[in-house]
Amino acid sequence: MLTIRSVLIIEDIADVAAWLQQQISVLFPQAKITTVASLLSAQRAIATTSVDLALVDLGLPDGDGAQLIPLIKAHQPAAICVVTTIFDDADHMLGAMRAGADGYLLKDEPETEFNAQLAGILAGRPPLSASIARALLQQFHPLGDEPLVTLTARETDILTLTAKGLSVKHAAELLGIRYHTAAGYLKDVYRKLQVNSRAEATIKAIRLGLVNSG
């Protein structure tokens, strides 16, 4: 799992913010936690605070929290952005993924499940529960309407391994290639599939029959 020293929680409901702080304190006892409750305060925090992990609520009083994800990534490319929300519909999920979210967690999950999924994201295993996968699949056009996509053997290898939950680094080691080479293959996969996240790439590749879902 990544070393997390600084966490930014973006949540406007005080009780929920306190609950998220508690979960982070359990997972990362030494982490410095900053909590904000609006887009404006988040923007200020992003500009002045080092962030290893950001937990981003979507329904903020002054706008959509997904707007903050590209800003966080622009200021701190290595930051992990995880949406924490009550919205379980595909539109919100896909919007967050396209904005660059590294994970999507529902705040009403049981505590143990929430912590396990968050730990999985940080270990390179984006959670895709059955309900989320079904919702995502419903958003794709029928196969006959999809443009023809062809992946090279290496692109298929890297996508298959990362789809199974391996980090890019681990996948590169298994394939006997350098990390940057593997990351380049995954970037090419994103471009060909017209997606912006590993979770979305996995779902679309399975939908198109480019990788095996087993």
Automatic annotation (TrEMBL):
Q: Where is the Response regulatory domain?
A: 6-122
Per the record, residues carrying 4-aspartylphosphate are D57
Alphabetized SMART domains for the sequence? HTH_LUXR (SM00421), REC (SM00448)
Record's superkingdom? Bacteria
For this protein, the record's PROSITE patterns field holds: HTH_LUXR_2, RESPONSE_REGULATORY
**What UniProt keywords are attached to this protein's entry?**
DNA-binding, Phosphoprotein, Transcription, Transcription regulation
Q: Where is the HTH luxR-type domain?
A: 144-209
Q: Which GO terms describe its molecular function?
A: DNA binding
| One of the protein's GO biological processes | phosphorelay signal transduction system
Keyword Transcription regulation part of the UniProt annotation: yes
Spell out the protein name for this chain: LuxR family transcriptional regulator
- Organism from which the protein derives: Pseudidiomarina atlantica
